[in-house]
Design goal:
95 residues, alpha+beta, HU Protein, Chain A, 2 domains, elongated
């Protein structure tokens, strides 16, 4: 299976062709969706999109890591990461 990286422009063109909106309107829709998701995640709020999945903020504790090349131990600082959990509906469509 070949992987493909989608750009924002690809999404804009797909919406434009499927819905019949101009590219400028489709672009505005995409930007607003991404801005909303980003602002919610920045405010430490999880984002759940029904029938699609959830973007969840996870807190990772600091820990001791190791450089794989040199084997030297180095501290890894605590940080927040975003994970995506697909919904059961999305999972069932993939099987």
């Amino acid at each position: 299976m070949k992987s493909r990286t989608w750009t924002r422009n690809d999404l804009v063109e797909k919406i434009s062709s499927n819905v019949g909106l101009p590219n400028s309107t489709s672009s505005l829709i995409i930007e607003n969706i991404f801005d909303f998701i980003l602002s919610e995640l920045e405010n430490k709020q999880d984002v759940k999109i029904s029938s699609f999945g959830s973007f969840i903020i996870r807190n990772k504790k600091s820990r001791l890591g190791r450089n794989p090349k040199t084997g030297i131990e180095a501290p890894i600082s605590a940080r927040n990461v975003v994970t995506f959990n697909p919904s059961n509906i999305l999972k069932s469509k993939l099987n």
